[in-house]
Amino acid sequence: MSGNHAGDLTEETVFTWGAPPLKFGAGACDEIGFDLAQHGARRVLVITDPGVLALGIPHRVADSLRRYGVTAEVFDGVHVEPSDASFAAAVEYAESQGSWDGFVAVGGGSSIDTAKAVNLLTSCPGELMDYVNKPVGRGKAPDRPLKPLVAVPTTAGTGAESTAMCVLDVLSMKVKTGISHWRLRPALAVVDPLLTMSLPPEVTASAGMDIVCHAVESYTAQWYGRFERRAPEERVTYCGSNPVSDLWCEKAMSLIAKSFRRAVHEGADDVRARTDMIMAATFAGMGFGNAGVHIPHANGYPVAGMVKDYRPRGYPQDEAMVPHGQAVSLTAPEAFRFSFPAAPERHLRAARLLAPDKEELADPAEQLPQVLIDLMRDIGIPNGIGAVGYGESDVPALVPGTMKQQRLLATCPRPVGEEEITRILLNSVQNW
Amino acid sequence: MSGNHAGDLTEETVFTWGAPPLKFGAGACDEIGFDLAQHGARRVLVITDPGVLALGIPHRVADSLRRYGVTAEVFDGVHVEPSDASFAAAVEYAESQGSWDGFVAVGGGSSIDTAKAVNLLTSCPGELMDYVNKPVGRGKAPDRPLKPLVAVPTTAGTGAESTAMCVLDVLSMKVKTGISHWRLRPALAVVDPLLTMSLPPEVTASAGMDIVCHAVESYTAQWYGRFERRAPEERVTYCGSNPVSDLWCEKAMSLIAKSFRRAVHEGADDVRARTDMIMAATFAGMGFGNAGVHIPHANGYPVAGMVKDYRPRGYPQDEAMVPHGQAVSLTAPEAFRFSFPAAPERHLRAARLLAPDKEELADPAEQLPQVLIDLMRDIGIPNGIGAVGYGESDVPALVPGTMKQQRLLATCPRPVGEEEITRILLNSVQNW
């Protein structure tokens, strides 16, 4: 099958973008029964984790389903930071319980990503590794429509409700990778800010830094027109920053500027701040899910994956972990110092959107890093990778984990290799 | 089936939004074969009108389909300003030629709307009037997925590639109405600015005014939270202005400010201006397709429908017509004078986005109308409904046609009745 007519063009002229339909607002999660009934669903599996189950939201969703004549069951076996093994367990459960004609994911990124995988593997033939991104898997495209999946985020962070990908650890290969295809995109994102009112301040802060990184990394990602032209069959989900992802990221940054600090410090009572933050999360997902993220997220993989004994406040204390939003943000100030020269105007504009009142610094490369540091200090994010247990001597062990994320590093607007990643990690041991 | 949990809320807290996936850029239209093959399509009908057929674009699309092993046929019988009769003829043709597993619409709003109807009526049981909006039709929801429809706009105007509705004249009832349902939304919008390079200046100007009205009417539409709370089964496609439609409309207005005049006056050579204008059209569709339009579009129905002998330059001279973009914009200055008090800040911000350098007028209600008048004069839009053949004595005959558009008038931020419409039409006989 040959390429395209415009075969004489050598630079990229095309970008792609997609987003799920959105139902947003207080009470939206009580309408899911209607929405899935409209999709023709009669028997639906609600997929969640035990922590979210305890909050009662999955059963509230199941009630909404039953009110519209839809049979609902709840699976609460989602594993935080899912893996090929935890995906397999969820798929096995779903298959053992008969056939489903719709799914609802209730929770953070782990629940939504697990539901995407369950939907894929119960709708299409083949096994997980057929669909996992190359080179880890075989990168096969699903060849038929999946069942309708409604995604209901309960944290304001990952934006997984907006994206067409899921992330997993492949345990045997000790690598974090994903599945990316437009068919994985939820049929509907139901975003109800009231579900986030009770998030602890520490979780609000960490998850919010994930939003910040999504928005700023996408906004500073390589411009789509600067890649080499791709044939249609070579196009990827992450096509670089573009006029549509910019819209969403800019708005997400403005919402963060307005409401992030209040959501952390007064979130239990401030519906407006919670509304802005979950809107920012969904909007950033509409952006980065198409543009892509770069160095901070690539570094986040080893920073979370090689954790020693860090136990963050506000999280369960039974196992060591670096929350995803901390892992991706701890190297962000230094990463944006590095990427600054490739797109100075974008870095400065991101800084202005995130902190409209910040004074102009003498060194423009320092503007965005300082805006991020001000924010991180105000909301209690640890001071660099040193504060979550890594010293300078750990850096050489972290670097290969970052370098494996070539799909993300390719989105960086400035070429980046081992040497640059080493320097960024070293300079991120302490951020202020 | 009962309502929802949040039944104690009396004001609306929920908005909805949806958009097709987008492939945008020079050469995008040569990739449609790949995209429809990904959707599993094997036999596809390309739907267009004779004017667009003569430009060669539909056959170029058919070639792209064949390169990916997809059988393609072309139907060029689309009627400009489609009706129940022209929809029926297109459906009859499609059905007589066997079964299709995908459609491509190539053209303006008429072709895209006709393809939506053909897709609906060849995918679902029942007849046209089952699906037409109440009270004209029975307002039934399609109960199954339609076939994938790829929409390829060739004018920068209607934004029909972005929306989940189609508009038609019901000839026997002499009324213009539509079908609105999320299943009608194209599976993919392929927006290729190079397809618009040869549009004549007059067509560029009229179609562009449709974009302006989409963006400004949506942006000034009643805020979604000011409607009474709806049960899920009562929600409509047009939910009022909201944070997502605002994003798209604001960007559309900025693109118009930058490039509309250049697209009209230098469009044959100015790829950048053409790119901005077709992006503005698609973006405005992403906005108004969810928020809704109000008085100017409601007036556009009788102004176009009751045409006497106006024959605009740049259009075929064989029949009298008021181009859609003229019909909807000729009463816009006066309509926005009327709606101003209901949302002054939004009207002023729209004026600033459309004309950042315009001086501030003493009367703020005059700012947006004057910005529109400056633009209309610069690009050669007729001076009011008087210039397309209507005098003051015609106004009483026009009013009922506007009043039939209650679905649109309900979106106006200020209550509007016959008296107000009469005054708006009278004051729009001459705009400057």
Summarize the structure.
Chains A, B: This is hydroxyacid-oxoacid transhydrogenase. Two copies of one chain form a homodimer. Chain A has helices spanning 32-38, 50-54, 57-67, 84-96, 109-123, 128-131, 201-219, 243-266, 271-291, 295-305, 324-329, 332-339, 344-354, 367-379, 395-403, 406-409, 418-426, and strands at residues 14-17, 22-25, 43-47, 71-75, 103-107, 149-153, 165-170, 175-180, 188-191.
Defining traits:
2 domains; alpha/beta; Dehydroquinate synthase-like, alpha domain; HOT (chains A, B); 6-stranded parallel beta sheet; 432 residues; two-stranded antiparallel sheet; homodimer; oxidoreductase (chains A, B); disordered N terminus; transit peptide (chains A, B); Rossmann fold
Q: Percent range for helical residues of chain A?
A: 40-55%
The top level CATH class name of the largest domain in chain A: Mainly Alpha
Strand content of chain A: 5-15%
Q: Sum up the overall morphology of chain A in one term.
A: globular
Unreliable sequence segments of chain A: 1-6
Q: Any idea of the CATH topology of the largest domain in chain A?
A: Dehydroquinate synthase-like, alpha domain
Query: Largest interface by residue count?
Result: A-B, 48 and 48 residues
Helix tally of chain A equals 17
Strand order of the largest sheet of chain A: 2-9-6-5-3-4
Multimeric state: homodimer
Per CATH, the superfamily of the largest domain in chain A is Dehydroquinate synthase-like - alpha domain
- Counted up, domains of chain A total 2
Which structural class matches the secondary elements of chain A?
alpha/beta
Order of SSEs of chain A: EEHEHHEHEHHEEEEHHHHHHHHHHH
Q: Gyration radius of chain A, to the nearest Å?
A: 21 Å
Distance between the termini of chain A: 55 Å
CATH architecture assignment name of the largest domain in chain A: Up-down Bundle
The average pLDDT value of chain A, as a whole number, equals 95
The biggest beta sheet of chain A reads: 6 strands, parallel
Query: What's the number of extended β-strand segments of chain A?
Result: 9
